[in-house]
Design goal:
Blueprint: E1 21-24, H1 34-49, E2 53-58, H2 68-80, E3 87-90, H3 95-108, E4 111-115, E5 126-130, E6 136-141, E7 145-150, E8 158-162, E9 165-166, H4 168-178, E10 183-187, H5 191-204, E11 210-214, E12 217-218, H6 234-239, H7 244-252, H8 267-273, E13 284-285, H9 288-300, H10 304-311, H11 319-329, H12 333-341, H13 355-360, H14 367-382, H15 390-406, H16 413-424, H17 432-456
Parallel strand pairs: 1-2, 2-3, 10-11, 12-13
Antiparallel strand pairs: 4-5, 5-8, 6-7, 8-9
Helix pairs in contact: 1-7, 1-8, 4-5, 7-9, 14-15, 14-16, 14-17, 15-16, 15-17, 16-17
The chain binds glutamic acid (GLU).
Amino acid sequence: MSDTSKPPAQRKVISNGMNVVSRFAPSPTGYLHAGNYRTAVFAYLFAKHEGGKFIVRIEDTDIARSKPGYEANIFEALAWLKLPIDEQYRQSEHRARHRELLEKLVADDTAYVSKEKPEKPGDREEVIRFRNPGGSVTFTDVIRGEITTDVTDLGDFIIARSFDEPVFHFAVTVDDADEGVTHVIRGGDHISNTARQMLIQRALGFPVPRYGHLPLIMDSNHKKLGKRTGAKAITEYRDEGILPEAMLNYLAFLGWNPGDDREYLSKDELVEAFDLSRVQKGSAIFDEVKLFSVNHHWMRALSDEDFLAHLGDAGHPMSRKIIPLLKERAQTFGQAREMLSGELSFFFSKPHVDPKQLASKEPRTSPGMTKMALESLSEAIEALPEGVSSEAVKEALMPLADAEEAKGKGGRGAVLWPLRYALSGQERSPDPFTIISILGPTETMARIRTALDLLEK
Ligand code: GLU
């Protein structure tokens, strides 16, 4: 008979039994969404807060549904979130160990090979069932408190389809013990599995880890977040230009808060503050609007250098000057890139200006009056130095616009609208003073001259 106390080759010995080891045990059967990674974030933050280890175990025993591409995506996402992994395992590599322990349980008569009556095609004629002792199983969930399950009704449940095909409950229980996992932090949907897994632990003489079942995550329609309800792969958010700092910050707050009014915490601050006792029991809502606003915060906190680096190829020498505008308007780098090639592209190339728009927009003025209005600004604009601030531009031009207003011919707008439109070709854009400060007086005058020519025609 085999010896259950013999560690498998992969096992790393933990120096003392008190050291915390948590794990993230995803199945690579699809692209994981943000809610799945919330589990990784909590397991990671908890382990690091306690000075312990964070393990990732790929649960790939479902051969038909597990795909290397999904597994690669998991490691990509964890690297992006900057959650370094202390030890990494793949469940399928532990088959020999699973087999050894299945054989032991059957030899002990704690489990048995059961003849089955196949009910549908593909059903097995033989499976391995656990001899359920019945009674109740109680554990104290770190988050939810004491949970008692009457296990009698579970009957002699299946622990393997064959000696080489353990089911999830068996493989998880063995691996957690062999990997020295002290804290099983996982989704609330696993609560009902815990009693079965504890029965297997007892039969194998394994220590019982602490369990913490996290609150469920709902989408904004209050449906359970999942692939079926359209949850995106987390890496799609990365590709849309969400910062990893923002995603980490946002996920940490899905069912937890630091107990004070801080909303924006860096990874180090999260590690410092994280505490399972503050994890809520009730479900949490994954809200993209909130995620984007958290991202906006982290984008604004970037240095100009880092901001430009995130823009990548979309960055233009001129982009540096419009960083303040992008920081104000874009909530993701995807949006910032769109602005650079869309509504803010006039900073980089001369806009298309429609002469009709120039003169006929509210307040209604004639082409002649519009021309006079633009001409009235020329001298003041030419006198501006390069690198002038938007405040200084406003100071120089506002009195001229006020003077037009005093003449009662359409007010300030009769000056400021054609000015802004001549420079941007956009109905909506930043104010003309900001635009002039970025374009500089030379380019500004060139665009005004183009507009004046159009008005001549
Ligand atoms: N592999 C399981 C899943 O993806 C997790 C198992 C566990 O955390 O115990 O849902």
